[in-house]
Every structure is written in C-alpha cells, then in structure tokens.
Design brief:
single chain; 122 residues; alpha+beta; eight-stranded antiparallel beta sheet; 22% helix; globular
C-alpha cells in the first residue's frame, strides 16, 4: 500500500484582526505504519510546541467526523465552519493553535487515504 501525502494551505487563526496568516500544512497517511491515523504537519513554532514530534497524529476517523459535526479526542478538536471550511484546534502546554482549512482539501485527502488503504486484489 502506498503513502498518501498532500500539502495544502490553511489559515492560522490569531486574535489580531489585521493578522491573516496563510501557512502550508502537510497531510500524511501511511497505511503500513499506522492504518488508523493521519499526520498533520504544521510549520515552525506551532508544531514545535507539541512534544515528541513536529507532526500531530490523530485518528483518521476523528478527522472525518469533525468535518460533519464537532469532534474531539485528546489535544485535538475539529468542527465544521460554515459549508466550506473546517477548523482544527491543537492544544499544547504552551497554548492553542487554531487552523482553518477548506473542507474540500481535507475531504480530498481522506478519499485518497481510503483508496491507499484498500488492498488491490489480483
């Protein structure tokens, strides 16, 4: 089975009305290493606040559920924001990172993960 990687752009939500930060986010799924999880790689200090890894690892099911209704697990919360966006909130000991995605990018990524996880019959 093959690894699925997708880089997308997301908006880092801040408390400043003038600060509209667009960041690259790496989405990764490796069905051989961990078929139930996806990784979200955030840039710079946002990722560095999370101990042990520059990526956030979360259940693929959590990401899917969070696109339809508010969902939470551990340090991650996800919820739909209007009809075309989703918000992912990452909690660390140093604070909270809030990232807003176009839902279509996350849906496209999830579809690719299910295709990658399906064994090909011969």
């Amino acid at each position: 089975m093959s690894v699925v990687e997708q880089v997308t752009r997301a908006h880092l939500v801040t408390d400043s009305p003038d600060d509209h930060v667009v960041v690259p986010v790496a989405l990764r799924y490796d069905p051989d290493a961990d078929p139930a999880s996806v990784r979200i790689g955030l840039p710079g200090t946002v990722a560095a606040d999370h101990p042990g890894s520059p990526d956030w690892v979360l259940d693929r099911d959590l990401l899917e559920r969070g696109l339809r209704a508010p969902a939470a697990e551990g340090d991650v919360r996800i919820w739909p924001c209007g009809r075309v966006q989703a918000v992912v909130e990452f909690h660390t000991p140093k604070g909270v990172a809030v990232v807003q995605f176009d839902s279509s990018a996350l849906v496209r990524f999830l579809r690719r993960t299910y295709t990658a996880a399906t064994p090909v019959s011969h």
